[in-house]
Design brief:
The protein is 0% helix and 73% strand. By secondary structure, the chain is mainly β. The chain has one domain. Strands 1-2 form a two-stranded antiparallel sheet. The relative contact order is 0.44. InterPro entries: Ribosomal_uL22 (IPR001063), Ribosomal_uL22_bac/org-type (IPR047867), Ribosomal_uL22_CS (IPR018260), Ribosomal_uL22_sf (IPR036394).
């Protein structure tokens, strides 16, 4: 079992994920597109020797 004091972040990066497409209704029958972006955050933790 590892101690929390001996751990450190060796890598951290963010990748783009899919975009959800939504429609926002506007006046006079119009509709605007809304793009809701999301992402993945990856954290690699290693133990100090």
């Amino acid at each position: 079992m590892t101690r929390c004091d001996a751990l450190y972040i060796s890598e951290i990066f963010v990748d783009q994920d899919s975009t959800m497409k939504r429609i926002h209704p506007r006046s006079r029958g119009q509709a605007f597109k809304i793009l809701k972006k999301s992402s993945h955050v990856t954290v690699v933790v290693k133990e100090r020797a």
